[in-house]
Design a protein that fits this description.
74% of the residues lie in helices and 0% in strands. With 86 residues, it is mostly helical. It is rod-shaped.
Length: 86
């Protein structure tokens, strides 16, 4: 009888540890996703601002050269960048 109670207690303890560790892993994944999303939003904002500045340039050739350089801002990102038309 004592062995059965000990086995149940061990199984319950193992289950609790397993559930807590899975919750911590899920929390870690969600936090990383939120952080990565925030970084992506910042990069997109910087790219948008750079495009706006390029389009405000007075000379057509300078504007064209500037717009060609803008997509390099997000080269390290996993998401594809759309081509920018001059």
């Amino acid at each position: 009888m004592r062995v059965i109670l000990h086995a149940r207690w061990m199984l319950s303890a193992f289950s609790v540890v397993l559930v807590v560790s899975m919750l911590l892993a899920f929390y870690n994944v969600v936090c990383q996703a939120v952080s990565q999303s925030a970084l992506y939003q910042q990069a997109m904002a910087a790219q948008s601002q750079a495009i706006w500045r390029c389009k405000r340039m007075p000379s057509v050739s300078a504007r064209h050269d500037c717009l060609l350089a803008v997509p390099t801002l997000l080269v390290s990102s996993d998401r594809p960048t759309s081509p920018v038309s001059p």
